[in-house]
Each structure stands twice: as structure tokens, then as C-alpha cells.
Amino acid sequence: MADFKPGSMDITTQTQTFEGFIKFTIRVVWVIFFILLFMAVFTS
């Protein structure tokens, strides 16, 4: 632990995982939005 230098860790995997999670979340929100829009327009 004494040899640790802040900012020297490779975080490419964590960054890719986070970006994938954000993309997935945005897509799910869009799908839910369109489902709700469809229900609002075509249900009585």
C-alpha cells in the first residue's frame, strides 16, 4: 500500500462498464416512455 500513487490505476474496465450501464438505462427509459405514450394514446 505504501507504493500507491493516486491516478495510476487502470480504470478502463470500470469506465466501459459504467458507460454500458448508462446506455442501457437510457434505452430502458426510452422504451418505458414509448410504452406509456402508446398506452395514453390508444387506451380508453
Report on this model:
- This protein has 44 residues and is mainly α.
- Helix content is 70%, strand content 0%.
- The mean pLDDT is 92.
What fraction, in percent, of the residue positions are helical? over 70%
- The strand count comes to 0
| Percentage beta strand | under 5%
Rounded to the nearest angstrom, the radius of gyration is: 20 Å
What class do helices, strands and sheet pairing give? mainly alpha
- In round numbers, the mean pLDDT is 92
Quaternary structure of the protein? single chain
Shape, per Cα inertia axes: rod-shaped
Main sheet specs? none
Give the low-pLDDT segments.
Answer: none
Helix segment count?
1
Order of helices and strands: H
Distance between the termini: 64 Å
Transmembrane segments: 20-42
Domain Cytochrome c oxidase subunit IV bacterial aa3 type: 8-42
Organism: Ruegeria aquimaris
Keywords: Membrane, Transmembrane, Transmembrane helix
